[in-house]
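thread: overnight batch results

M.L. [08:02]
morning all. the overnight job finished for the chain we discussed friday. pasting input first so we're all looking at the same thing
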Amino acid sequence: MKTIHNKIAGLAVAALISAAGCKNYLDVNQDPNNPTKIAAANRLVGAITTTNGAAMWRGAREVAGVTQYGTTKLLTGTNRNAEQWRFTSGYFFWQNAYVFTMPNCVDLINLGQEEGSPYFTGAGKTLLALNFGMLTDQYGAIVVDDFYNGTSQLNLLPKMQTQQEVYQRIDKMLDEAIAAFDNPTNNTGLNAANGDILYRGDVQKWKRFAWALKARYLNHLSKKGSLYNPAKIIEACTNAFNADGMDAEFPYLAGGIQTDENPWFSWGGFVTTGTDPNAATYDPRYFAWSQFFVNMLSSFPVTNTTFRDPRISRIMQPAASDGQYRGLRSGAGLAAGQGLLANGQPGDATKTNGNDYGRFSNSGFYTSRTSPFPFITYSEVKLIEAEARLRSGDVPGALLAYEEGVKSNMRKLGVTAAEINTYWTAQLADGLAAHFASLTGGLSHIMRQKYISLCLNPETWVDMRRSDFSQTIYGPSLVRPVNINNVVFDQNNANQWIRGMVYESNEQTRNPEAVGDNSERTRLLTPLWWDRE
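M.L. [08:03]
and the structure it wrote out:
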């Protein structure tokens, strides 16, 4: 498995050659030892790897600042752009997904069909749906119909589908993936070339992966009136992951090349010079976890009662100076001291030494060298189910799904049974059941637990937008960053939040008619389709 990532470049080049329509030039004097077509069994690892490393990681790196997981050390500089919402057309998630990732998924779909191996077609459609979902949830309208299909000339001026159309395509694609996994005739197993690094050829887990994504995207429509269908969401959750150990997550490795490592650990902009956290040269992309995240892990929803979640020690390191868990406020930097506390009051402004904060990189479960990076998890599925049941009026069912969602994430992080029971007993004593009697109270529990269990996943931004960044749901310490982008955002309007991303400059230059108004003010402030009532 240490050579997995070495295959990415070759796979991307092969996809680009196909996309450029150069096939005819390669038909002459073909070298049998250097085939121009790679079997589906050998393409699966590339589709998985690039979906993770090129697409999801690129779509998560800056969003981790938007959602206030990570905070930077200094007040000025490139590293602060995302945290202070200074996004421009130089944000390259679009290019990474369309050029380096999704052609691998499309080719996998086509090869599965050609070879009579529908399982590969199902895997390709599942991954492609995930990529389309991640893209549309950041940009809104995206290219779907005119995207590379592996068989015909690429359209250099593609039209974009509305987000509503994209969501319809995603749902249809996942239905087709599920049907492919149910096909009784399949010539080659998914792990025939040891390329199924997710599930080792377990088709049933792949099918549950597709159902999990269906639940996620159906649940995004909570603001769309009759389009939101709790029964369909619950059905999807029932057919999705139903036990621990089923999560769709990328397995990073130790002892390989640098790109075998989890990028939150080192190579994603977190490498620093020296070891002194107070030195000017010690300036990683994210220096410490935010105080907002510390608050999520040290207080209960609704009441904001102080209680330490046992997961905090699995995710974060305490400060070297005094052993306390402490974080910075988004956009404020080290000089401003501790961020707002769970009750919304200022933290300790005197804590301006680097050793007053635990580090972000290599701090625990999500940022160590071999930490997995999940696409979607069992815990998320159960919390989606909890929301759907709550919105449908099934409070007992919502509570049961919520409990399993919380406890499954704790088990995943290695929390002991005794610690889980203590935490759960304390939640019950704090009024958990009574809170679920209201939609807002129940959502406060569900969304805060999703914030914890989705750590660093761009999906968190979807939840925060669907919740309108509500302090009633997330607590009084959820405020906009300090030193916010004042070119776009009104400094005096605390209710004005970031709602979308700017299209990449290449797309704006080459296809301006499809892109339309790509100004930062329009793109960052305009809610996406599912984000409007």
